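Entry 14: structure prediction run for Glutaminyl-peptide cyclotransferase. Input pasted below.
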Amino acid sequence: MTASVLTGVLLICCTSCTVRDAAEGRASGTVAEHRDDGAPESESASTDRVERLRVKVLDVLPHDPQAFTQGLEMAGDTLYEGTGLVGRSSVRAGPPGGRPTARVVMPAPLFGEGITVLGRTLWQLTWQNGIAFERDATTLEEVRRVPYPDEGWGVCHQRSRNRLVTSDGSSRLTFRHPKTLVKTGGIDVTENGRPVAKLNELECVGDAVYANVLFTERILRIDLATGAVRASIDATGLLRKNERVNGSVLNGVAAVPGTNQFLITGKLWPKMFRVVFVPRDGLTH
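Run finished. Output tokens:
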């Protein structure tokens, strides 16, 4: 990356992070009290023990070091990735660690965010552009645009409930209709009874959602029935210090279908890691 490009990236990153922090600060003052069905969350749900896990690396794969990763998801053998930054936002698809077989670049002023795949459809959010894109999951070409008045951050598809789960950088997850993106409910996320803000990229697995916490190397497993954090996953140390640049934060978690493995990467990371989550104490990676 040239110095001029990197400077531009850093200016945009700092601006977007500042605006996001302001938005998150407004939202994080709300303490979780109710589930989306209107029933009070049980006291025991917020005080259950949080499992402490860490990553164990199984393989290291190459990753585009100029990809400002916003969304990562596998469908079958195909890895889909959405990237951000104005003028550099894209969505791409291909084998994990390989060259993309399909790629679409989004023109300015669009700022790409999270993605998720539903059969033949791929949804791609935008950060503050007020729209979301429905794309063909094979060609990635645009099918239509729908209004999305909220900030777009992460999105995933909970198949068991046939609904989308979305984040906006606060401690709240919003449920949406998978075809219209209209809100159908939501839930506040708590860890030991306290709200957890800066929820970002999402990966739905069964009745849980994995969410990375922005500006940290922590991934949470959240119970979508109660909003309670059930596991906190330590992903520190994946990149060496000399592999980092400003803005290269963890942001990309994709479950590998049919396994207990995950792919993890981040914004401007030169590597992607195939990992499993294991008990933290006494284990190294």
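Notes: The chain is about 10% helix and 45% strand. Will compare against the previous run tomorrow.
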